[in-house]
Amino acid sequence: MQAIYRVAAATFHEAWRRRFLNAILVFAVLIIGSSWSLAYLQPGAELKLLIDIGLGSIRFFGMLIAIFLGVRLISDEIEKRTIHTILTKPVTRAQFLLGKFFGSLATVFSNLALMGIAFYAVFAFKAPGFMNKQPTDQSAGPAFSTEFIYANIAKAIGLTFVEMMVVTALAIMASTLFSWIMAVVFTFFIYFAGQAADFFKTLGNPQRGTGMFSQVVFNTVYGILPHFEVFDMREAILKGTYVGWDVLAQHVGLGVVYTVLILLVGYLAFMNREV
Amino acid sequence: MEEGTIFGLVGPNGSGKTTTLKLLLGLIYPTAGSGTVFGYHLGNPEYKRRIGFLPEGPYFYDHLNAVELLSFYGGLFGLGGAALAARSEELLRMVGMWNRREIRVRNYSRGMLQRIGLAQALINDPDLVFLDEPTAGLDPTAQMEMRSLMQLLRSQGKTVFLCSHLLKDMEPICDSVAILSRGMVRRHGRICDLLMSDAGRYRMRVTGCQNLPLQSLKDQSLDLRIEGEEITMLFADQRAALAAAGQIADGGGSIIELGAQTRSLEDVFIEAVASGGNE
Predict the structure, then answer these.
(1) Rounded Cα distance, B14 and B202, in Å
(2) Which residues in chain B touch residue A82, judged by CB atoms under 8 angstroms apart?
(3) CB A42, CB A49: distance < 8 Å
(4) CA–CA separation, A108 vs A100, rounded Å?
(5) Among residues B74, B99, B171, B118, which one has the least CA distance to residue A2?
(6) Which residues numbered 115-134 in B keep a CB inside 8 Å of some CB on A?
(7) Nearest to A55 by CA among A129, A153, A127, A126
(8) Is A152:A238 a contact under the CB 8 Å cutoff?
(9) In whole angstroms, what is the distance from residue B162 CA to residue B21 CA?
(10) Which among A80, A92, A275 is the nearest to B59, CB-wise?
(11) A14 Cβ partners below 8 Å, 6+ apart?
């Protein structure tokens, strides 16, 4: 545990010194901070736009931070040979990989937390005014109440964190397999393909006249890809749908399973990699 | 390798030094066979508690200063608190970095990197220290200091495994060496034995050889080489050398140099590598 903690702490501290990641965070906070002004672009739907832009930014910039942090973690250590002085200490490769993962996760979490705080600040400042503009007729739109929205936003940010946990694991796994540029391409590809996982399911549907071979291929791709779309709660919030704790727990559980499986693949690749 | 000695692993580029070192350190795995050190299989975490490693041209997390760096590496051994602070201070003083302990690694010179690299290799007070090219790229003063540090480690009872191709650096400090070529150990043993293997031989250089009985000299000597107007000969003993010297003097030749043959590690190395190349 000590070794994992030490590697994680070093990863966390080093990550916060990376200017590129800091720049993404600053940009994200600026976008979130100015989201209220963009909300005026759609009169009558300011609140929706505010939530959409705020949560969308947290998710998008969180994804950028998770990917650009994770993809260089292992390959950089091998390239710069800093790994030699660590793995010759009583640190196993599994401990090293877990240390890197938890250090990255802590970094991603703190970045998401800062973005979340920025969003909450904007929301608390602007939402009451926007809420007055919401239609009073419940059939014409979602039921908005302050408590309801605050709770849903917290759940949405929580799920975004779970999603970024999977993305971080994916980026680290890619880092054990490829050079960092290839790892970026791979992680982005899997992430966006995972967002559209349902599309592959549709393609593999026999009712669409898909051949047997194509059905197997599309359904396999659907089964393998992490279903990132389940972590996106924006639509539920915008529709005013209540997301229960049981549903939330299912999604968190799915995220944990994805993370463990992805890290396991990364570990198997790293175990056999010459350093 | 004997405990408490400095052992040198030498070999030309591509001979397998780094591979051997990485295998011993558990950084790569053998495709066949196995190895044990201190009774532990290579790569065993317990074995790693008893070793230290200074890589060639070491890289470290460059945002840390010397104290933070040693704290990080000490933490990997579960060290902490006052014991780690005391050990760090002791090592930083030993490698001459105590007064520069606040400087970040990114601002280090090559010599400073080697010094802090040695300090991190010793943080766990290891019994066996692996040093890969510890003097490469250092100025003469720093090289001398690094050699002194290695001798200090030996005097403290530690075993030093030195991997280098700088033979002149190794010869004065190594107790024993192994010469590696094409993945095989060609010569190994105590350095004094390897250098003494030509003991008793004599070497002579002469000029003015036009009228000398070359065939007779060739028969008397172990080796005869002609370079321009100069002939270099190697004799089995002093008597053979003196007999040849008389013939040379009678034939009008001039003796430039006559003396006992001495060998350097470089001579042994070249011979060993050449013998490996012929196989």
Answers:
(1) 34
(2) 59-61
(3) yes
(4) 12
(5) B74
(6) 117, 120-121, 124, 130
(7) A153
(8) no
(9) 10
(10) A80
(11) B61, B63
| Inter-helix orientation angle A93-131/A73-80, to 10° | 140
User: Would the CB atoms of B75 and A6 count as touching at under 8 Å?
Assistant: yes
- Residue A250 has a CB neighbour count (10 Å cut-off) of 12
Min Cα–Cα distance to chain B from A17, Å: 8
Q: With contact defined as beta carbons under 8 Å apart, do A148 and A240 qualify?
A: yes
Chain centroid to CA A260: how far?
15
Residue with tokens 């780094």: B18
Distance from CA of B166 to the nearest CA of A (A): 22
Could you tell me the strand order of the sheet in which B202-207 lies? B223-227, B230-235, B202-207, B254-260
Dihedral, CA atoms, B147, B153, B159, B161, nearest 10 degrees? Answer: -30
Sheet holding B6-10, edge to edge: B51-54, B128-132, B159-163, B6-10, B176-181, B184-190
CA neighbor of B69 nearest in space, from B80, B60, B77, B78? B60
> Using CA atoms, how far apart are residues A216 and A47, in angstroms rounded to an integer?
43
**Cβ distance of A10 and B61 shorter than 8 Å:** yes
Q: Do the chains contact at B60 and A82, CB–CB below 8 Å?
A: yes
Q: In chain B, which among 62-91 make CB contacts under 8 A with chain A?
A: 63, 72-73, 75-78
| Secondary structure letter of residue B57 according to DSSP | S
> For residues B176 and B57, what is the distance between their CA atoms, to the nearest angstrom?
24
Distance CA B164, CA A230 (A): 56
Q: pLDDT of chain A along its 275 residues, tens only?
A: 888 999 999 999 999 988 889 999 999 999 888 887 877 777 777 777 888 888 999 999 999 999 999 998 998 898 888 999 999 999 999 999 999 999 999 999 999 999 999 998 888 887 777 666 555 444 444 455 666 778 888 889 999 999 999 999 999 999 999 888 999 999 999 999 998 888 888 887 777 777 788 888 888 888 889 989 888 887 777 777 777 888 889 999 999 999 999 999 999 999 888 88
> Which of B76, B124, B129, B163 to probe by mutation at the A interface, max A CB count within 10 Å?
B76
Q: Chain A: nearest CA to B63, how far in angstroms?
A: 7
Whole-angstrom distance, CA of residue A169 vs CA of residue A192: 15
Contact A91, A2 (CB under 8 A): no
Closest approach of chain B CAs to the CA of A38, in angstroms? 39
Nearest-CB residue to B55 (from A17, A81, A90) = A81
Mutation target to probe the A interface, by most A beta carbons within 10 A, among B61, B70, B73, B122 is B61
Interface confidence (ipTM) of the complex: 0.80
Strand, helix or coil at B231? Answer: strand
Tokens of B55: 């890589």
